[in-house]
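Standup notes
- HV: blocked on the assembly model, inputs below
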Amino acid sequence: MENKKYALFLLVANRYGVLMRISGLFAKRGYNIDNLSVGRTQDTDISRMTVVVECEESLLEQIVQQLRKLIDVIAVESASTESVMRELMLIKISHTSENSGHLMQVINIFRGRVVDMSTQSLIVEITGQEDKLNAFIKCVEGFGIIELSRTGITALIRGGSSLLESSKTYYDN
Amino acid sequence: MKLTGAQILIKELMACGVNEIFGYPGGSVLDIYDELYLNRDVIKHYTTAHEQGATHAADAYARVLSKTGVVIATSGPGATNLVTGIATAYLDSVPLLAITGNVSTKLIGRDSFQEVNIVGITMPITKHNYIVRDVGELQKTIREAFFVANEGRPGPVLIDIPKDIQRASVEYDPKKEFIFTKKNTAITKAEIENIVQLLVKAKRPYIYVGGGVVISDATDLLIEFAKRLEAPIATSLMGLTAVPAQHKLALGMAGMHGRYAASKALAECDLLIAVGVRFSDRATGNKEMFIKNCKVIQFDIDRAEINKNIKPDGFLIGDIKEILKKLLDVMPSQDNSQWINRVYKLKESHENELKSPNDGSLTPKYIIETVQSILGDTLVSTDVGQHQMWTAQYYRFSKPRTFVTSGGLGTMGYGMGAAIGASIGKKKQKTVLFTSDGSFHMNLNELVTMVSNDLPIVIVLFDNNALGMVRQWQTMFYNKHYSETTLNRKTDYASLAVAFGAKGYRVKTTDELISVLNEVKSIDTPCLIHCVIDSDENVFPMIPPNGTINDIIIK
């Protein structure tokens, strides 16, 4: 069986140590985390995590089942493609008076936004799918990347349902 | 009414039915121990020699009683000494509540005296754990901890309570109710139908049971199910007491050191019905070959066990008792007489005999069988190694929850604390601990606990002057390079027992053993019987790691 990339969506209790519990489970069971992002939801007691893993389909099911056992995990779903996935990157690029015009063109093509600028460098904010960001990095490498920071992928499943709603089937209430 | 954290803790423990706990006092739990002192008529506290012993005792207490075991330890080293005991309980699905004190919240994170992040340390070996940072959360945390330890597949839970939280006061309502949501394990009619279809199609069904049957107290239903299906029952180590050894359909333990008939019938079956068993590598050997010729049905309360080690053709999730009840409601009687007669033949075959020299020498088989025949059915605990496997093979268990052993983690040193917890759990019932010169040295300090509490424990110590199980592997797979397994301990075990205040005996012959057992039978204080056995006694049969029935070594 071949490895594929999957996104896992988690709703977790916004509590002390919850990130450690999730990452600890991955570490102890030997699952690899490709990418992880976490943030609060509209409910301050609940955080949402997006974890990207690369594994076989059978292992994905096992990961979901193991995650469901954690007390702080409220809901888990997995998806491969039927979701909206985005990542945000801030990237600091050096420029000179000669090449800055060309650099601005590249930034515009990728719909990036310049959020800070000095005579020798600028910071671009850019959002998109993971491969779009990778492509942008390739295109500006020649100018000189000073540093960059990526948020990790965040995602929502398409359509009208919510994770909290779909999780209800797993619990009596 | 306003109460302190320590007061709330003790009140909540009492409300949850706790009347016996194990532990060891220390600086960060002084307030809790002060409350224990004031409530000593309601909760009896047993102080062990070491926190590890206390955890094993609480774990064994839970195993024999089907009730949450509770252990208390102080911060820092007290807490870290619990780790092996918690991991042991985790691997064997035992409901255990560990309570640790910690330094005051203001001192946390400053490397204060006896400070350790025990919540971080025990995260991978607990079902869940808590640090209480607000005394207002304490009541709910304790209730939830008991719920989590027992809900679904049981397991250990730890609550870390900083010292200032134990001392802080808050309004307390003992009648306050908390509702915790259970996982939905409702089984549909269609699911039952599908499984019954597989069951009735089978010509050679084989039931393989684990600790889940013991935990669910499902023995009677299991036997009814096996009769209805005309299927033999084999067990894992944890499932050994789920079926009476003398039952016609019982094949005994399967796996690495399992009985020949259990392994052979497994290789010949066309349907394997796994009931509350998790397919450990010690039980399955080669996983691909294990189920090569049969379909597999799995019943478990833990959904994550499905497809973890083995991919079944059908499964049901829920309490084993409920599942078996539902199946028995609809499953007609099956005629698999041809198969069951074949199984009976296997049971009677000479390969299925557990051979041992019959020359009057003191063999493990002789010792274990004689202990059972003279002392009768007692509670039995073991340490880990050859003596543990011999006990599993030779002792004829007739009732669930009478055998306490570390299965999953394989914790050498488990036995001393376990014998204490088992005996206390059953109102100071006679308990036999089978141990060895290797394991005994790990936690022999707990002799003090046995003696202080006058526990009727008989320690039967197999002395082969070696770390026998490791030595056996070195004999078979490492060219007899006995690297660090010849012990050459000079311990005089009988005198050591006497020095601790117990009775001590040394036996070298079968006659000596019989006379000592007749003496200790009527003694209600701890006794140690040092049995000298041959260094070259091995555990057979054996299926080498990752092997199959074709690789079985009978003798």
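- HV (later): unblocked. Chain B touches chain A through 20 residues (CB under 8 Å). Residues 51-65 of chain B form the longest helix (15 residues).
- Next: hand off to the docking folks.
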